Amino acid sequence: MARRPMMAANWKMNKTIREAQQYTAALLPRAADAEGVDVAVFVPFTCLHEVARMAEDTPVIAGAQNFYYEDSGAFTGEVSVPMLQDAGAGAGIVGHSERREIFAESDEMVARKTARAVEAGLLPIVCVGETKEERDAGDMWEKVSGQIRRVMEKLDDPDGDALVFAYEPIWAIGTGDTATPEDAQDAIGQIRDLLRELGGDDFAGAVRILYGGSVKPDNVAEIMAQEDVDGALVGGASLEVESFMQLVEAARETVPSDG
């Protein structure tokens, strides 16, 4: 089954509103030529409304980096799915390793967030991955499969296009270390097999799985060439429009000529 590739920029805690405006103004005309690729930009809450406004009626998806699973209430400092949608968001990252490792988000919380986003029609990019210690101990698959199973338990017969998974080995985020293309394919292939077991052939064939972890212009082509890799969730290399567009172009080259 042909899956539409996605290249997703995660700015993390970077850029003021003015910097976001400048970035988006430079990105939009170039992304308009990226036919067949979903281009998403996940920005700080402070920039979201402005980026979404600028990207309205363009192929670029404005997204948030986090949200809570309740719609309203006494949750000081949190932002809900309806608030994100009101600000123009079309997607949101769920369970990024920095949220799990630094802010102690549990598998249960990530699963509840994912379920709320799917219910509301906000596209969740669900991050899963292992630490170096877990990988070295041979526990990679136990960790990753447990994260995925918890998410799938919360979903009620979802369509494959209702969510995206992102495999991000924690040891490769911001370290300069990158899983080899073969490592990425091996892990993502296992994830797709598990999704087939849990959701059926149609679901597993339709759901997109991204790779995240020190993706750069000089390694993206090899990563994108892997059968089960449908794109990338990119941190540092997405902070400049030029390097991010090189990644988008690499994804574009994987699209059949008929689009």
What does this structure look like?
The chain is 44% helix and 15% strand. With 259 residues, it is of the alpha/beta class. The protein has one domain: TIM Barrel (Alpha-Beta Barrel). Strands 7-6-5-4-3-2-1-8 form an eight-stranded parallel beta sheet. Helix 1 runs parallel beside helix 2, helix 5 crosses helix 7 and helix 7 packs parallel to helix 8. The chain is globular. The two termini are 14 Å apart.
Annotated CATH architecture: Alpha-Beta Barrel
Q: Describe the oligomeric state of these chains in a short phrase.
A: single chain
Strand content: 5-15%
CATH class: Alpha Beta
What strand order characterises the main sheet? 7-6-5-4-3-2-1-8
How many separate structural domains?
1
Task: Say what the CATH topology is.
Answer: TIM Barrel
What's the helical proportion of residues? Answer: 40-55%
From the spread of the alpha carbons, the general shape counts as: globular
Q: Low-confidence segments, ≥5 residues, pLDDT <50?
A: none
Fourth-level CATH superfamily: Aldolase class I
In this structure, how is the largest beta sheet organized? Answer: 8 strands, parallel
* Topology, number of strands: 8
Secondary structure: elements and pairs:
Layout: E1 6-10, H1 17-31, E2 38-43, H2 45-55, E3 60-64, H3 81-86, E4 91-94, H4 97-102, H5 107-120, E5 123-128, H6 132-136, H7 140-154, E6 164-167, H8 181-199, H9 201-206, E7 208-211, H10 220-224, E8 231-234, H11 241-252
Parallel strand pairs: 1-2, 1-8, 2-3, 3-4, 4-5, 5-6, 6-7
Helix pairs in contact: 1-2, 5-7, 7-8
Key descriptive features of the protein:
8 strands, alpha/beta, 11 helices, 259 residues, TIM Barrel, eight-stranded parallel β-sheet
